[in-house]
Amino acid sequence: LTAMGEPSMDPTISSADSTAQQDSLFSMMDVFLISLITGLFTYWFFFRKKKEEVPDLPKMQSVAAPVRDSSFIEKMKKTGRNIVVFYGSQTGTAEEFANRLSKDAHRYGLRGMAADPEEYDLSDLSRLSEIDKSLAVFCMATYGEGDPTDNAQDFYDWLQEADADLSGLRFAVFGLGNKTYEHFNAMGKYVDKRLEELGAQRIFELGLGDDDGNLEEDFITWREQFWPAVCEHFGVEATGEESSIRQYELVVHTDVNVNKVYTGEMGRLKSYENQKPPFDAKNPFLAQVTENRKLNKGGERHLMHLELDISNSKIRYESGDHVAVYPANDSSLVNQIGEILGTDLDTVMSLNNLDEESNKKHPFPCPTSYRTALTYYLDITNPPRTNVLYELAQYATDAGEQERLRKMASSAAEGKALYLSWVVEARRNILAILQDMPSLRPPIDHLCELLPRLQARYYSIASSSKVHPNSIHICAVTVEYETKTGRLNKGVATNWLKNKVPEQNGSSSLVPMYVRKSQFRLPFKPSTPVIMIGPGTGIAPFIGFIQERAWLKQQGKEVGETVLYYGCRREHEDYLYREELAHFQKEGVLTQLNVAFSRDQAEKVYVQHLLKRNKENVWKLIDEGMAHIYVCGDARNMARDVQNTFYEIVSEFGNMSQPQAVDYVKKLMTKGRYSLDVWS
């Protein structure tokens, strides 16, 4: 339009010429504009039509697609299954229990399948009655503070919103939890209650496994009563078949292309050589260790601070998040297993699922070598569960050893007691069992099939992304102890991390990791006071919190009181981050630093004692300042003792009875003003 108007603005054109030119120009303009408007309207009309018509087609397709692609009902019909065992699993135990239950089914003339709820449309539960003698079992672990596991989140959301009629559904639930946590078995309890509310029929009582006690025994006790209830309900009997059934078959590769062999990757082949975001549990990022220093000045323990470089990874984190690390088993343990079983650990093999319809084609990434499987994929340091002992018993050539293994795998009281003392309390791992039973020499491929997966380890991030956007810090203590058999057992991840020495481009200092989001968050308003309680390595997230509050203060924000209650054994031995905390206090960011040294005097002093000492100030911050409380560290004793101390403070200064004080603190939790990041 500017170009079209330019000639009329030219001062050198005479008035008459200008008029003639304008007449000619306007007629040309009319034709041009009419053509332009017509063209634009035509284009818009057809474009608009497409915009309106397109959504209708996908809508029709989207109704059918998920049902066809993710219907466990169709899969069960196709493969002749009548029992489906769903698992909500964070560390692999619930998945393992689900697999054991689905394998049990054949003993009763039934056929089972284990299923990840993330892979299926759970609204199909209303159709399960289409299958004769059908049953849905749920092995549901509770994660963190009463949360569903990552793979059960969608199922949990669906249950909350669903108004489905599940009156034809028969079900049973086994929950996996830990009594040291506030919300013991919350997920198992919720699924059991909610399914009944939706009309489903419970055919056996809810099982509550406690990992703080003996989770394996809880499961076996529940299972031995569960199957008779199933038999009674469906009018079936045990077939008496107790034989070992292999789930995978061994294929040895003699001339495989080395580029097709897994060497420790969690998902995509060669993903460690060719890194592509986004990074998660199935695609971890290889972070370089840029710093690894010992934090404590003395004592027999080794406490360390590590820094992982996440530059160019596009990984984002917030203070309070967790970093998951995939460790490797000690090579000496792996070599000893190879030697004792007389195996060439560098043999390349695959374990292929005999059930061709199964979504799980291999127990771990295949093809790979036995050495890689035992180093990166399998848990060889935890005491094996009873089902592993049962399956291994057939390979013991000594009758006494075979009977001992079968007894420990049985549900008899004597067998349970023997398993508890000889395996669990003695902390015998698979290598120790092979060493102490000279006639037990199973095929290594069957052993690899039976051992559970080596799991990622989670650590509270000890840094703020506002201050360290390209680096994640970890604070950890190495685990090392002597067992009742005189063996020295070492924690897999902490001892592996201890040896991660920073090098220039050295592969030995690479750590496969990803970030797991948490609800452990600083208040939205920086002016809100915070009370942080974190003894030992429980200080980790609070280093990040304090760094962030210091950064906010530098930005000119009004930052509320920042109060820390920290505890360690001795002031001159294991006072972690002493210099950093002193600096933050000097800068005025850390307004209160209260430190309990438990062993520096005759009477032990812990963080809860310091809270009681400052109870008036603590109550004022909570009541008037609307402070947020954060507790990080040991769940079994510390977190419980701290919570009881808050009950006492609230009761005394809030003029409340004990039940009212308990209710007050629980309401703080509900409102997000009392947060826990604890472990047992």
UniProtKB/TrEMBL annotation:
Top-rank lineage group of the source organism: Eukaryota
Cofactor list: FAD; FMN
Residue intervals passing through the bilayer: 25-46
Enzyme Commission number(s) from the entry: 1.6.2.4
Pfam family, one: Flavodoxin_1
Enzyme class: oxidoreductase
Endoplasmic reticulum is among the record's keywords: yes
Residue ranges of domain Flavodoxin-like in the record: 83-227
SUPFAM superfamilies: Ferredoxin reductase-like, C-terminal NADP-linked domain (SSF52343), Flavoproteins (SSF52218), Riboflavin synthase domain-like (SSF63380)
Any Gene Ontology CC annotation: cytosol
Any one Gene Ontology molecular-function term assigned to this protein's record: flavin adenine dinucleotide binding
Biological process per Gene Ontology, one example term: response to hormone
Domain called FAD-binding FR-type: residue spans: 282-523
UniProt KW keywords: Endoplasmic reticulum, FAD, Flavoprotein, FMN, Membrane, NADP, Oxidoreductase, Transmembrane, Transmembrane helix
The UniProt record lists the keyword Nucleotidyltransferase: no
Name recorded for this polypeptide: NADPH--hemoprotein reductase
Record organism: Rhipidura dahli
